[in-house]
Amino acid sequence: SGNTAGNSSVPVGGNGGAIYTTASGASLHFNRTTFISNTAVYHAGVGVGGAIRSSGSSITCIDCVFENNHASWGAGVFLASGTHQFTRTTFKGNGAWAQHGRDVYVSNPS
User: Fold this and answer.
1) Model pTM?
2) pLDDT tens, 8-33?
3) How far apart are CA 90 and CA 12, in angstroms?
4) Residue 87 has what pLDDT?
5) 3-state secondary structure of 35
6) Which one of 26, 64, 80, 82 is CB 3.0 to 4.6 Å from 89, fit for a cystine?
7) What is the DSSP letter of 43?
């Protein structure tokens, strides 16, 4: 609660500039957290989730900020399966190089 995750760059694999989770059934909760200036670097067709990439996990963000994050897909957040909730969360200044989900990209929604 009340943390900042920022100025991170993931050059290898390009998944989740600040957080990358593939733990099926896991739940991650963020409260008053700022994700700023994180980058999932485009490499060999990959570069997803500038701040967060989640596959199979559940993400809850309350009163969070996603600012100035970059990736090819889902510059703020890239979500693939799982249950997600964003409440009073702000997205600003994020940039998707491939123009797929400047703020949020959802893959395989159910």
Assistant:
1) 0.86
2) 565 556 788 889 998 888 999 999 99
3) 28
4) 98
5) strand
6) 64
7) B
